[in-house]
Amino acid sequence: MPYLLLLIGCIGLIFSSIGLHIPYIQQFDHSTVEWISLHRSSFLNDFSVGLSYIGGLPATLFICGCWCLYLFWQRKIANILFIGFGISGSVIIGWSLKYLIDRPRPDAMYQMVKTYGASFPSAHSLYAAVLASLVLFVFYKHAQAKLIHTLAYLWCLSMGFSRVYLGAHFPTDVIAGWSIGFIWIALLWLMMSRSLLSKTN
Q1: Which pTM does this prediction carry?
Q2: Which is more confidently placed, 52 or 197?
Q3: Could you give the CA distance from residue 34 to residue 12 in angstroms, rounded to a whole number?
Q4: 31 Cβ partners below 8 Å, 6+ apart?
Q5: Is 81 helix (H, G, I), strand (E, B) or coil?
């Protein structure tokens, strides 16, 4: 499972990184944002703006904090460390890359929400991919694993779509965010001894 995430992540990151230097892909990015801006609806507007608020760093930290409190009550310390390293590492990696690459965001006329920092990678998409991947590994032996995993990755896909829909990011920013999240959590899982991660009921 971690190797599949690594493969998907590496392919996505290579594509999105190369896309920063290929005019055709850059044109696709801009055209997609422009096309979506012309086909918005009130329902999707509200849905996407809502996702923007609950998918940012403060809300992600709150969700993970509550999750870790529950795991602490269950005495699953290894899983708490896994989640803590996963989230903190993603913040450091994501914002470091934003600073280093410094890609401009889509034009302000397309943006429906306030944005912070550069465009590449999408931090919301990165956090969503990290959260979904953490759920994938922590609940991989759960009785309802398939349902939990499906909901986690619907969350991930919805968050990425919403960032492009809101004009906050280009598609390649989202792909990069997802990819970095997959790569980071897969590597973290491989670095941590699986025998130390407690079993989930």
Answers
A1: 0.90
A2: 52
A3: 23
A4: none
A5: helix
CA-based nearest residue to 63, from 71, 72, 54, 76: 54
How far apart CA 176 and CA 126 sit, in angstroms, is 8
Contacts from 111-117 at CB under 8 Å and sequence distance 24+?
111/166, 111/167, 111/168, 112/45, 112/48, 112/49, 112/166, 112/167, 112/168, 113/49, 113/52, 113/166, 113/168, 115/168
d(CA 46, CA 56): 16
The amino acid at residue 103 is R
Q: Which two tokens stand for residue 94?
A: 């994501």
Q: How confident is the model at residue 201 (pLDDT cuts 50, 70, 90)?
A: very low
- Rounded distance between C-alpha atoms, residue 200 and residue 183, angstroms: 23
